[in-house]
Amino acid sequence: MVINGQIIRSDRTFDVINPATETTVAACPECSSEQLEMAIGAAHQAFGDWQKNQAKRKKALIGCARAVKSQMRDLAELLTREQGKPRRNALHEVSGVVHWFQQTAGMKTPVDVIQDDDHGKVEVRRKPLGVIGAITPWNYPLILAVWKIAPALLAGNTIVLKPSPYTPLSTLKLGEILQEVLPPGVLNVVSGGDELGAQIVTHPDIRKISLTGSIATGKAVAAASASDLKRLVLELGGNDAAIVLPDVDVKAIAESLFWGAFENSGQVCQAIKRLYVHESIHEDLVTELSAFAQSVKVGNGMEGGIQLGPINNRPQFERVISLVDDARSRGAKIATGGSPIAGPGFFYPPTLVTDITDDAPLVAEEQFGPALPILPFDNVEDAIARANATHYGLSGSIWTQDIKRGAEWASQLECGTAWVNQHNTFHPDAPVGGVKWSGIGYQNGRWGLEALCSLQTVHLPPHQDSVSSA
Ligand code: NAD
User: Fold this and answer.
1) Most exposed of 103, 115, 307, 442 (fewest Cβ within 10 Å)?
2) Do β-strands 395-399 and 417-420 pair in parallel, antiparallel, or remain unpaired?
């Protein structure tokens, strides 16, 4: 682990399993309560100086980008071994880390001037919050960590970061690499299970929790942090709907739709998790998607040419198996896939399920794996109502040749991100966040940066220079 700039071992460890082979990648340190105290204490101590100089922090972020760039291949390999994604995709995730540090280094916490006249001057400035507790999941361990690290550091906060126990190794390695650049205590990375996350959430010296994870964890974190009125950013689960109108060219969109649902073996918060297709093209689209699914190479991500890796861990693997089995037992049809691939490894083929109703768990709940229900509709208003009839609200998409109407329908989706003729695309300056149970607060862009600051209103006599932002 990385605590106060030092590499720290622990008396206790837990095994991290390679999901492609079910062998142990490494024994990972399990952070003790004393070590967590050290990490939070170090972050608290480091905050004193770190908050003072934004120019220095910008320079440090550029240094972080450079440091990660020099170790991209090693980081990507470790990511594949513990997460399962193909090496090419792992490399893409690490490139995203480099890009995010560079991009964030170009940002600035603004000072807003509300009034500046003969009666006085009123400014609103942003101040860092203190120590941020950052908690991440196992699907994109590195990019989701850097979405928290980069803006938190730019704003002048310090961090204690806890990755998922399924994928802690690449994040620990990232923390180690960044120590070349960051002062001791500014970024601490500790590893352990859910209980360690719970200890972070209730610690009095943590000012804000930034969690990416499931809705159940988000609710537990919100409840546990209430007694201390901790600030929260919760980026939680989704059950995104894509709605396909009858005017599309089925052949032309099938591949994009497929990857919108199956990227990272469906383990993407904003993946298409329910596909509503106009009844007139339903059969054709299922045929196209099935053909494409059967052409995709599933296997160990360390091997060349693999497009989809395994499901990351056994509980998730079993969940996907049981959701599809349940659908089958309700009379649903399996257009392709539908059974796990013989082991070792948590391999499940891309699976398309038809003749299923909206109340089946595979449709109503987040599957977070490579199994997609496809449901017909006859009018778009109904499809939008069905897409919205859920506690989830992360994102959604409309597919049509009528872009103008598509944009109107997209705006009727109750979610944080809506797309037309695409799904799962990001812009580094655009906020990511959910409505309803999919989350509270935003990450990325100026909104994400502001979420890691508090506002301070400063009233001054007339004709003063601006208060500079640290
Ligand atoms: P999870 O909620 O099980 O775990 C996420 C993290 O929270 C882990 O580090 C875990 O150890 C920690 N944790 C668990 N219980 C805790 C508690 N009581 N207090 C504090 N920390 C606790 O989620 P997961 O299975 O790792 O990830 C999959 C979920 O994450 C899916 O629902 C997915 O949609 C969601 N996700 C959301 C986004 C987004 O941006 N909205 C992005 C990626 C993943």
Assistant:
1) 115
2) parallel
CA distance 141 to 43: 21
| Residue 467 pLDDT class (50, 70, 90 cuts) | low
What length does the chain have? 470
- In Å, how far from its chain's centre is CA 388? 22
Q: For the segment 44-95, what is each residue's pLDDT rounded down to a tens digit?
A: 999 999 999 999 999 999 999 999 999 999 999 999 999 999 999 999 999 9
CA of 411 to the centre of ligand 1 (A): 28
Give distance in angstroms: CA of 163 to centre of ligand 1: 9
Q: What is the DSSP string of 242-295?
A: EEE-TTS-HHHHHHHHHHHHHGGGG--TTSEEEEEEETTTHHHHHHHHHHHHHH
238 C-beta closer than 6 A to ligand 1: yes
Please compute the mean of the pLDDT values over residues 383-401 and round it to a whole number: 98
Three-state secondary structure call for residue 209: strand
Q: Residue 464 carries which DSSP code?
A: -
Three-state SS annotation for 325-344: HHHHHCCCEEEECCCCCCCC
**Lateral strand order in the sheet of 351-354:** 333-336, 351-354, 371-377, 272-278, 240-244, 395-399, 417-420
Locate 342 and state its tokens. 């013989």
pLDDT of 463 = 87
- The sign one gets for the Cα dihedral 191, 212, 297, 321 is positive
Per-residue 3-state assignment (H helix, E strand, C coil) for 100-127: HHHHHHCCCCCCEEEEEECCEEEEEEEE
pLDDT at 468: 58
Rounded to a whole number of angstroms, the distance between the first and last alpha carbons of the chain is 30
Q: What is the pLDDT of residues 133-176, one digit of tens each?
A: 999 999 999 999 999 999 999 999 999 999 999 999 999 999 99
∠ CA(254), CA(256), CA(262), 5° rounding? Answer: 95
Instruction: Tokens for 179, please give them.
Output: 């120590």
Q: What is the torsional sign of CA 112, 114, 120, 126?
A: negative
Q: Whose CA is nearest to atom 38 of ligand 1?
A: 269
Q: Which of 244, 295, 288, 298 is nearest to 266 (CA)?
A: 298
Centroid of ligand 1 to alpha carbon of 54 (angstroms): 31
Q: Which amino acid is at 240?
A: D
